[in-house]
Write a structure and sequence with these properties.
Helix 3 packs parallel to helix 4 (121-130). Strand 12 and strand 13 form a beta hairpin. Helices cover 34% and strands 22% of the residues. The protein contains eleven helices and 17 strands. The chain has two domains: 4-265, Alpha-Beta Barrel (TIM Barrel); 270-355. The strands form two sheets. The protein has an eleven-stranded mixed β-sheet, with helices on both faces. Strands 12, 13, 14, 15, 16 and 17 form a six-stranded antiparallel β-sheet that branches. The radius of gyration is 23 Å and the shape is elongated. The longest helix is centred in the C-terminal third of the chain and has 20 residues, at 250-269. It has helices at 18-24, 66-75, 92-106, 121-130, 152-161, 177-189, 207-212, 228-238, 250-269, 292-303, 323-329, and strands at 4-5, 11-12, 28-34, 57-58, 61-62, 80-85, 111-116, 134-137, 165-172, 194-199, 244-248, 275-276, 282-288, 310-313, 318-321, 336-342, 350-355. It is α/β, with parallel strands linked by helices.
C-alpha cells in the first residue's frame, strides 16, 4: 500500500482522521480541561504548571470563564476543538458543559475530539449525547499486548454505539515494538477507526523517568526519543493494516500544527505596527526606561508618529512602536530600544530581542 507522506516525516497509510486534518491546518483549539489523572504514565510530558493540577486552558489562555474559550476559538478561526488533559473525564460535567458551549456557539460542524484513558459506559454515552464527534483512548502500555481481553473493548463499543468515531492514541516506546504491533492487530480486529502513533519526547517532568528506561534523545537539537520514529515508520510501512494508522512526529507538532495556529491568531490580533513573520510570530519595536509617558507624548505630538504606529503599554511598562520607525528615530529619543519577537498567544511569550545601538 502506498503511504501518505506528511510534513516533517509524519506518515499515514490512509486518510487522516477528521481531528488530525484540522490540527494539520492549525484550526483546532486545544482545550486543556484539567491536569488531574488517575493514570501515572512514566512518560507523561505535562509541564509542572499543569501536571496533577486542576487548571483549565484554551490554548495558552487560562480559562476563568466560559467566554475565554469562545474568545480564543474566534481568535484562531477554529474549525474544531481538541479536548485534552490530564484526563478530561476527571471533570466530566465541565467537559460536557464546554462541548455544549462550543456546539451552541459554532454549530454542529465544529468538530470536537477528546483524549482519555478512562470512560465508564454512562460517561461515554453522556459525551456522545453532548455532541462529541471523536474519542481517542490512551491505552496504558501494560495492556498493549492484551487489548482484546481488556475493558477497552467495551469502551470502544460504547463509543461507537454513542455515534462517535473511535481511535487509539499512544506514544511510540522504542523498546515496545512487539507489544505495539500486537495492539495494532487487535485494534484491527475490534474495528477501531484509527490509531495515532506519536513520537515520544523528553520534557522537564518526564526526563528522569525516560532516562531510567535508558531512552536517549535522537540528536543534540531534538527532544524526541531515539528510535521512536524509526519504529513507528517501520511498523506502518511493513504492515498492510485495514484501519488508519498515522504516525505524528514531534517536529510536526511544532513546525506545522503550532506554526499554522500561530499564523491564524497573528492575522487576527496583529496591530498595524507589528510585522507577522513566516513562523507566525510578531516583530515590533519597544522602548523601555524612565519617563516613558513623556517619550510617548513626544513621539506623537513633537515628532509626529501616527497614533496607529505606536502604543504605550502601561501593563508591561513599555512603548511599542513599528520597528521600521524605531530604526529611523533611534538617535532622536531616549530609552533602551529593542526589536522584539513574540508569540501572538495570550501570554505573548518573548522569543528573542535585539538591542538597537
Amino acid at each position: 500500500m502506498e503511504m501518505i507522506s506528511l510534513e516533517k516525516r509524519s506518515i499515514s497509510n490512509r486518510e487522516l482522521p477528521e481531528g488530525c486534518k484540522l490540527c494539520r491546518e492549525g484550526a483546532k483549539l486545544v482545550l486543556f480541561i484539567t491536569g488531574l489523572c488517575n493514570f501515572k504514565c512514566f512518560y507523561c510530558p505535562l509541564s509542572t504548571s499543569k501536571k496533577n493540577r486542576d487548571v483549565t486552558y484554551a490554548d495558552e489562555m487560562p480559562v476563568l470563564k466560559d467566554e475565554n474559550i469562545i474568545e480564543e476559538a474566534k481568535l484562531i478561526d477554529a474549525k474544531g476543538t481538541g479536548i485534552t488533559g490530564g484526563d478530561p473525564l476527571r471533570k466530566l460535567s465541565k467537559t460536557i458543559n464546554y462541548i455544549n458551549l462550543l456546539k451552541n456557539e459554532f454549530g454542529n460542524g465544529h468538530h470536537i475530539h477528546l483524549y482519555t484513558a478512562s470512560g465508564k459506559k454512562e460517561e461515554i454515552y453522556a459525551l456522545g449525547n453532548a455532541g462529541l464527534d471523536e474519542i481517542r483512548f490512551h491505552v496504558p502500555v501494560r495492556l498493549w499486548n492484551k487489548l482484546k481481553s481488556s475493558d477497552y473493548v467495551n469502551k470502544i463499543k460504547y463509543s461507537r454505539d454513542a455515534g462517535m468515531k473511535v481511535g487509539i492514541e499512544v506514544p511510540v516506546l522504542p523498546d515496545k515494538g512487539n507489544e505495539l504491533l500486537k495492539m495494532l492487530k487487535d485494534a484491527e480486529d475490534i474495528e477501531v477507526d484509527f490509531v495515532n502513533l506519536n513520537e515520544l519526547e523528553f520534557s522537564e517532568t518526564n526526563y528522569e523517568s525516560l532516562r531510567i528506561h535508558n531512552y536517549k534523545t535522537k540528536s543534540y537539537i531534538s527532544s524526541a526519543v531515539r528510535g521512536s520514529e524509526v519504529l513507528a515508520r517501520k511498523i506502518i510501512i511493513e504492515n498492510d493494516f485495514s484501519i488508519t494508522v498515522h504516525y505524528c512526529s514531534a517536529s510536526f507538532k511544532d513546525a506545522v500544527q503550532l506554526r499554522r495556529r500561530l499564523l491564524r491568531r497573528a492575522k487576527n490580533i496583529a496591530e498595524e505596527y507589528e510585522i507577522i513573520t513566516k513562523d507566525g510570530t510578531l516583530l515590533k519595536g519597544i522602548i523601555e526606561g524612565k519617563d516613558l509617558k513623556n517619550i510617548y507624548e513626544e513621539l506623537i505630538d513633537t515628532i509626529g508618529v501616527p497614533e496607529n504606529m505606536v502604543n504605550f503599554d502601561i501593563y508591561r511598562n513599555r512603548i511599542e512602536i513599528a520597528p521600521w520607525i524605531l530604526e529611523e528615530l533611534k538617535n532622536m529619543i531616549d530609552g533602551e530600544k529593542y526589536i522584539v519577537e513574540e508569540y501572538p498567544t495570550w501570554d505573548r511569550t518573548e522569543v528573542e530581542r535585539y538591542p538597537i545601538k
